[in-house]
């Protein structure tokens, strides 16, 4: 039996190759995902040991979850420590050096006068002490004084600056003319980050104006271990009476590196979940394809299998022979897939490198990755083949004598199950789209905020039910839907359209299975398209309705204060409302919250602030305005009092904690944070390092046009680098561009699952051409030309592809119609279905169909007129 | 389009019509070999045949004698190794694929032994298929006449799967005739049928000759079927062995008996 199985693989190499390719692509995604992860983590391992090279660190013992200044990601942040502690620590036994590490961002102008940036990564400013001998200067020497900087080697290359060059930096909101004193080399990769070194004193003064630094790095004297060093430091901290010493802790360098590592792994893990999601889609599609390929193979071999059964083969043996084939396909496909996946990861790595994020790690898949990928491939193949194999095993020996292929079995049960699932899904979507969050709260009798995710959960469940239901129901839908879709071709291309339609609806199960692959991909694509279009439009609407200011100035990481001063000095600017943002903590609430300092005139002339409860005057009374989403999430109401502070959990009455009354609940979709605070309060309770001018709103002076003001403002701020000047249209456009950029990634990922879907169509068509040899010969004998025959195959393919797409689009668009209700508090208010884009999808599907039909059509037109008829 | 010169057939032989009778299609020196070298099979060996206009010609012979091969060569479905085939005034052996395809659409009707119909099309669609492919209008009056003749009026909307074997063959016959081809070729059209269904099909083919003026050639193993024909050609070992005019079942049996008795085909003359 095994010999028969292997012969069959050899006899049908083309078809087997398709199945192998399907498995390979699915596995490639899995292997690629893990390889990419390996690449990232080996890269970051190196980066971490380069950037956190200290033997021990002293930092604040208290932690808060906040936004990391450098990476912009949310993470655990330790409280800062006084830089002055360094002097104490330097005197401790076994300590070679203790250096405060104030770190911040700066804007560096390159030799060509433009801002130096790599793939959006910020430029990091950090002290380069002159007595630090670990890193050699390639040229020049350490920076000294406020007018000098040193550059890390890659940064120098990127900026085109060398030792002795003069340039401009924007540091702590001010423009400074500086000279490059030297170029230094870290003996390790920095993943594309740009690093500018400052005189330690200047760094402290500019980056840590309050005297607090995130950490103090300590180097051990020769022969002192990290643990010994940590213990000495702890003892030194305990012994000193320098303020802040009691709130500081000493940890080993390995501890810090381990923590950083874990945080980065978390972030990569998230990326990986995303990638694995796509791997899952492609594997689901691959399973589909394999099941499809095998069931057709089984159907074709029915007579042979029946003959084997008649000759005494047991059902088990027949089952075994099909599964052996599946196993071979799975193993071969997986091996190819692992190779492809490694290539894929290397390719992504190359793209990253090209955009400036040097990924220097290794992509060679680890053994666990290889084993996992192969296991996945084999399991998918065997599972895909199981059902067809069972059917093969149960072929009755008498079938061998019977003439025609069996008609498709009844679809009633399948139709009923599918219909129920679809009905449930539709009901779920309707519920999700009509029941608001407040209603959920009432319905469930839940406390405030507890029903928050309810709509989303219902929608997710209904989406799954809809997709599965439609896939189950697809064979039943095939006849009516394809009949409608085929109408133009039936009318325009007589009799080719009718022939093609007949072939497509003849075996609705097969058609549905083939189209299913495309359906899955298209559900995701069309839902993403709807989401993106709705998000863009919602944002545009908010911008248009809420933005009263004429221009907006914003920057990354913030708008330098110097730029604000420059703008304020312009006669064309009539109104200027800079809004600062900073992180603060609230007693009893987990995690840090973004707070904004609101200029008094802001709501009147710059941006609409919608009052939900209370009045805006509350700000004048020194009270806080709470944004509605935060109020709902935390159950805050007008009249409540909140204790805010910079420490992780501020205690009322303690040092640095302030108690404030909630004066109003407001709504503004322009600000994603928790509250607006009066100016003095804002300064007291927000962490200085996180404070920045997020945005400034500008109004024209009387007698000046917006264009005039813009012409004046733009040159004034470009001196500060990464600062943009936008009016309402620009803002809406740039927001939409961000959304579309996200969408591009989604599309790129889905291209792979569509590729697999194409393989499925090719497979199905090729097989049905083989099955229909006699019919094809007959058609040729009555005068059907080769081109006409090829057109029939092409129309069939297009019909199948468009059928799958139509189902996918129906589900995707239908499901996402509930998004505005579910995502109302994320600012998604308008439902926009981008019909143009969806039309493009359908056209794309038709193109996919044509491409998929090429090979099968050529095969079909090569069937000799006589041979098909004689082969009976 | 390649056309044959209308010269008179050069050679005389058993298959060639006497002067005064018109051939609708003819083959001269027709030789077909399959394979090469030691495994070569000569399916047709220097065959000369005429198919008389407005007549039903039957082709008989033992299994493997080359009957199907002859039909395929006549229909341009297969290329002969050498020799000439002319249908109407087209030299089939020298036509290009594209012209052959066109000829098949409306110049020729072919009825196969089995599997004649496209399963996804209805009987009517199957009948009009060659016209649809050629993008020609269906002559309704002629269509009705043909459908009436095959007695399928009430079966037109059925798919092949819903028709009996005899009905399917009659649909195939109707398809072969609907284009008014110069020639209808039928390879064992009744091979799979019981005698009653066979009678239906044969009766129809004969009527199409008598009443509609068609030229038809059919292959058969059944002397009773052959008796429907005006003329019977006997093949043996790829050569034309004998010809019988106005056959009856008895005379056909007799000739077949003589053929299989090992008589040298060359000795048998009409
Ligand atoms: N494609 C082919 N390849 C090789 N030999 C062939 C091929 N087709 C037919 N032959 C051979 O040519 C000879 C004539 O075959 P043909 O099919 O014409 O016989 P036939 O008279 O129609 O027989 P039957 O009554 O069994 O249908 C046979 O010996 C056959 O084996
Ligand atoms: Mg034959």
Automatic annotation (TrEMBL), chain A:
Main localization, broad class: membrane
Superkingdom of this protein's organism: Bacteria
Keyword hit for Signal: no
Stretches that traverse the bilayer: 270-294, 334-354, 366-387, 416-435, 456-478, 512-533, 745-769, 789-815, 835-855
Cell compartments where the protein resides: Cell membrane
Keyword Heme: no
Topological type in the membrane: Multi-pass membrane protein
UniProt keyword annotations, A-Z: Cell membrane, Membrane, Transmembrane, Transmembrane helix
Pfam families tied to this protein: FtsX
Domain ABC3 transporter permease C-terminal: 278-392, 748-864
UniProt-listed PANTHER family: ABC TRANSPORTER PERMEASE YTRF, MEMBRANE COMPONENT OF TRANSPORTER-RELATED
Family: Belongs to the ABC-4 integral membrane protein family.
Protein name, entry field: ABC transporter permease
Organism name: Flavimobilis rhizosphaerae
TrEMBL record, chain B:
Pfam families: ABC_tran
Stored SUPFAM superfamilies: P-loop containing nucleoside triphosphate hydrolases
Residue ranges of domain ABC transporter in the record: 25-262
Domain of life: Bacteria
Keyword terms: ATP-binding, Nucleotide-binding, Transport
Record keyword ATP-binding present: yes
GO molecular-function terms, A-Z: ATP binding
Protein name: ABC transporter ATP-binding protein
